[in-house]
Amino acid sequence: MPANSGATVIGARDFLIAYNVNLNTKSVKRANSVAFDIREAGRVKTDSNGKKILDDAGNEIRIPGKLKGVKAIGWYIEEYGIAQVSINITKFRETPLHLVFEESTRSAYERGYRATGSELVGLVPLQAMLDAGKYFLNKQRLSSGVSDAELIHIAVKSMGLDELSPFTPEKELLNM
Which end is more exposed in the chain, N or C (fewer Cβ atoms within 10 Å of the end residue's Cβ)? Predict the structure, then answer.
C-alpha cells in the first residue's frame, strides 16, 4: 500500500444492559446453576460422575441455555452477604429485561431458592423499563395505559430494583 492510503473500520453493537439478580443464598454454585440455565451458551453436559461429555472430535457437548443474547455467571457479593447472577444482556430488544428476570426467578424457584430482587449496573434504556412495566401490569391483568412514571415504578417494584439501593430514574435511564 502506498504511504498516502489507509483504511478506517467502524463497528457498533447494540446497547448492553449490565444486570444482577439477587438470590436468597450465599452459594456461588447455586448462582452459577441459574446462570447456566439462562445464558445462551448454557452449560457443559456431564455424566452421572460429573465428568464432561465430549463429542467424537473431543469437543465438549453443551446444553444450550434459554435466553439469546444473554451472558451470565454466578458470584458472591460480600458487601450484601448474598450470591447474585451477574448478567450482560447484549440483545435487549430480542430478550427483554423483564424476561431475563422472570427466567432467573423461575430457575431459582425450580432449584429450591428464590430471587429476592435485582440491580442494574449503569444505564438502562428507558424503553426497556417501559416494556417491563407494561409486561408486569399485563401479567397482573391491569391496564398498561398509565404514565411512563407509573410504568417505571411498576418495573422497579416488580423486579426489586430498589432492594439493595434506591433506584433513581433520572440517573439510571437513557432515552434512546
Answer: N
